[in-house]
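pasting for the record
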Amino acid sequence: MKKAIMTLSCCFIALVFASCASTNKTFIEIKEPDRVYEFGVVKYKVSPGDILGVMDTKTCRSGSGICWEVRNIKTGEWGYVHAERMEKRHHVYEGRSNYHRAIESNPKDAKAYFNRGNAYSNKGQLDKAISDYTKAIELNPKYAMIYYNRGLVYGKKSQYDKAISDNNKAIELNPKYAWAYYNRGLAYYNKGQLDKAIADNTKAIEIDPRIDKAYYNRGLVYHDKGQYDQAISDYAMAIELNPKHLYSYNNRGNVYRTKGQYDQVISDYNKAIEINPGIAKVYSNRGFAYYKKDQHVKACSDWKRACKLGSCKNYELEKRKGDCK
């Protein structure tokens, strides 16, 4: 299970113009006690009367439906919730947008188009976001962040050439824009231009060595190129910067498996499961490592768990062979 880290949400990038909370258009009024999660574990609890603002929409880490990134309007705490669950248990409603009114009162307000574009992007309305970013660029063609955010949306739409072009312009306007290098590197990776992806992630790290995602994505590229020691080093740095980076543990475990270092494999998969115990593929991978170490009972236990989570191939195969019960 190799997974490239996607781009930052546009809401984070919009902080120059407005707080994230002001871009919300969807809100959740909590009707009964519930929980907000991060990496599959409870981050904080919410109570009746609490209001959560929806900041971003994405596929859940488990692959089961749509999750919302939310922020508690009262406390500012953030985390993730399952959209369908929220709609069934609580009151989900649309807030009014100040940006429509700002644009109506001043059609030449680039900031209003920019922030409305962010709101559209966070709602998954990507074509509307592109339209607003394009209008903002017409009104203010010298602001790097607008190109960067439009590039984010083109990346979400898998239009990687356009994403590269927008990040090129952002870098031209701001040569120290580390995140623009990072996201251009992501587009190059998705196009299979691995050397360019390495160069851009390296540049992002030179400018801002705190970007864990740049180390992670460069590790992915090294992994694909068969440069396993470099991949391990980058995954390790991503983990140092973000100890809850599940995919760094998982993918470093995959590299160790390629190298036949099964104790390290198991250690990394253990950590990935500790962070999120709901991903079938990690159990399947750890089961393979136990199997290679002749620990068949543990292997079968992991494969059975993976089957309960929806991945039954290994368990059913070993069960037919009589090796698993």
